[in-house]
Amino acid sequence: MKRLIQIALGLALVAALCAPAMAKKLVVAHDTNFKPFEFKGEDGKYTGFDIELWQAVAKIVGVEYELQPMDFNGIIPGLQTGNIDVGIAGITIKAERQQVIDFSDPYYDSGLMILVREGDTAIKSVEDLKGKIVATKTATSSVDFVKACASAKEVKLFPNNDGMFFELMSGGADAVVFDMPVVKEFAMTAGKGKVKTVGPLYQGQSYGIGFPKGSPLVAKVNEALKKAKADGTYEKLYIKWFGYAPGK
């Protein structure tokens, strides 16, 4: 009996040694509130364009993952240290960011837009922000734009969208400058009748999926994005979350 047990244990050990290694679950970081790209739904689970696009990409690539919500300003440092494997949070592809992380091909074309209170008639463009208090989100490209172009009296920075929108509606800021799809979505939903967008679209930008430098996932994800666009998956998700087809 003892001999049989030893043989069984030996066979089990050989099987374990010869079996393929278990694939690591990727840690995929996303913003906590960047509607309609990522936000917490009524069921308490995160959803949005980024979340569902990554779901489609991961299925094509054949990888398992777990979502890790975090403040936007922690995502790039997390990629740099390797604590997270993927960052998808409407991350603008910028030269300085490309020095410290790798990006996928662009998956969304955006830009910056000004949001003011409904009754405001003084602010119509970035030039009108001179001497004003402007709210925006920490560690985003909108911060650079406001500081370089707005001549604002003060720039108030917030870790999430809720903070900057509340600051505007409560009178603590004269305007919000932030990513066009997020600003427009807020103006049409929670801020409807209270705020409005003004002026043109500033600084055409592209969003990319972020990875640690040298990640082998970049090429695989780029191929998956191409496939998702070719088979209609991308367009279907785009229409679902933005209400119109890409390029329209």
Automatic annotation (TrEMBL):
A Pfam family of this chain: SBP_bac_3
SMART domains, sorted: PBPb (SM00062), PBPe (SM00079)
Major localization listed first in the record, in broad terms: other
A Gene Ontology molecular function term of the record: ligand-gated monoatomic ion channel activity
Compartment list: Cell envelope
Keywords: Signal
Highest taxon of the lineage: Bacteria
Signal peptide: 1-23
Ionotropic glutamate receptor C-terminal domain residues: 25-244
GO CC terms: cell envelope; membrane
Domain Solute-binding protein family 3/N-terminal: 25-245
Family: Belongs to the bacterial solute-binding protein 3 family.
Name of protein: Extracellular solute-binding protein family 3
Native source species: Nitratidesulfovibrio vulgaris (strain DSM 19637 / Miyazaki F)
